[in-house]
Amino acid sequence: MKMNESSVFAELKISFAGDSFVGKTSILKRFTENGFDSVRPTIGVDYLCKTMFVNGKHVKLHLWDTAGLERFKSTTHVCYRSCHGIVFVYDVNCQKSFESLKQWIEYAKLCNTKTNFVKMLIGNKVDLDEREVTEEEAAKFAWSNSMLYLETSAKTNKGVQMAFEELVRKILDTPDLWTPCVDENKRRLHEMEDVSMCERLWC
Q1: I need a labelling partner for 189 at 20 to 30 A (CA). Which of 52, 98, 155, 199 fits?
Q2: Is 9 helix (H, G, I), strand (E, B) or coil?
Q3: If residue 172 lies in a helix (H) or strand (E), which one and from where to where?
Q4: Mean pLDDT of the chain
Q5: With bands split at pLDDT 50, 70 and 90, how would you rate the model's confidence at 143?
Q6: Sheet architecture: strand order including 45-54
Q7: Which Gene3D superfamilies match (predicted)?
Q8: Which of helix, strand or coil describes residue 79?
């Protein structure tokens, strides 16, 4: 049965953060299109949308893919504003990308107007055999920063669907973080405002 907009229970804004080349875009491409290819680093920001079925409800996800370069921070900060969840991605084969996470978390906290947003840590590229960051090290970091934690491979699709399901469930279980969809026009207006803001910053 085809789903219509009136059946959407909640709309959630989720952004991705992390260094370039850790696989943020590849994770999103795998989740939204079930595809994988070698992609160039994101320039500025990119926006995707997907509806998933969680806890017996249709939940529409507004997904923001951000550049991992310092020079784009003036553009990407709006993507972290009013986020229900932020996914912090590192490459398990690159210690430097893991060490950068503290800065990404602080920056996201500074930009996000929601103080109780859900944080998720994803260690990507587990299909490669060049690991520099252990699961124990990452799990300890996630625990100390109150983050959900999973490892994924965008290439093989390992853990990708599970990551989004866990993130959305946690958001829905967080009191006062979100509200059910009531006014369709209001929801569309908020979506258009965010897209318009990013376009103005990038132009």
Answers
A1: 52
A2: strand
A3: helix 160-172
A4: 87
A5: very high
A6: 45-54, 57-66, 8-17, 85-91, 118-124, 147-151
A7: P-loop containing nucleotide triphosphate hydrolases
A8: helix
Closest CA to 171 of 119, 111, 104: 119
Closest to 191 in 3D by CA, of 85, 86, 63: 63
Rounded distance between C-alpha atoms, residue 182 and residue 169, angstroms: 20
Residue 203 identity: C
Counting Cα atoms < 13 Å in the Cβ hemisphere of 151 gives 16
9/154 Cα distance (integer angstroms): 28
State how far the Cα of 177 lies from the Cα of 171, in Å rounded to an integer: 7
Sequence-distant (≥ 6) Cβ neighbours of residue 62 within 8 angstroms: 11, 12, 13, 14, 47, 49, 191, 194
Digit-coded pLDDT (tens) for 58-96:
999 999 998 755 444 556 678 899 999 999 999 999 999
Q: Residues 66, 71, 76, CA angle at the centre, nearest 5°?
A: 30
Q: Six-digit token pair at 50?
A: 């997907």
| Percent of the chain's residues with pLDDT above 70 | 78
Q: What are phi and psi of 111, to 5 degrees?
A: -85, -30
The residues near 24 (Cβ < 8 Å, ≥ 6 apart) are 16, 17, 18, 42, 65, 66, 68, 87, 89
> Could you tell me which residues come within 8 angstroms of residue 11 by beta carbon, excluding any fewer than 6 positions away?
59, 60, 61, 62, 181, 187, 191
Pair 172, 55: CB distance under 8 Å: yes
